Amino acid sequence: MANMPGTHHAIELSKSLPNLAVGIHLTLTCGKPLLKKGVDSLVKEDGNFYKLNDFEKGIPKIDLDELYNEWEAQINKLQLAKIDLSHIDSHNHIHNFKEYKGVVDALSKKYNLPVRNCNPIKNNNEINFLDLCNYGTIRDMSLKYESVREECFQIIETNILKNINFEKSEAMCHPAFIDTPLFEGSSFNIARMREVDILCDSLMKELIKKYNIKLCNYNTINLN
User: Which domains does the chain have, with CATH numbers?
Assistant: First the structure.
């Protein structure tokens, strides 16, 4: 996300990991726009973007030209920071809203960036979508990690088996160390720490090896 308090820190971290694929996480539902003018339809009276529930209620009347300009500004900010973007994605999956498909397609074509599809793909058995840690036991932070560790990995292994026959499968996750801006700015916050524990656990590495899973990203995957 190009408009967050941690953006510059993330940019510096990414430069220390040259093989890490970094996508643009476009936003229309969190924080403020990068552009100071010409974004009236994108923001509330306080200058912040509308929230996702505003879109679900049909409140914002988004000007598509303004949206194109703002999203292009977000892309350009990261490119100017020498980030070699791998794909287009968005906060709250708002790039998948059908109303904005034309804007996303135009940016994808201009910058030669593939677009992450957040919906099941009809008639395509090669690609499936997996929300890796979106399960009650994993998200319940009232439980100490060691007390639910084995159960967490039983859940994850079960879901790997559901997806194992697909040639390609995405595993979505949201790991993070929590600071005040994230805690106050996102409704999904504390449980991100559990995802850090799981992804860094030796049991995760064992599962990857057990099922001969090849980790890939938008720079290495064959999208044709």
Answer: 7-111 (3.20.20.370), 127-210 (no CATH)
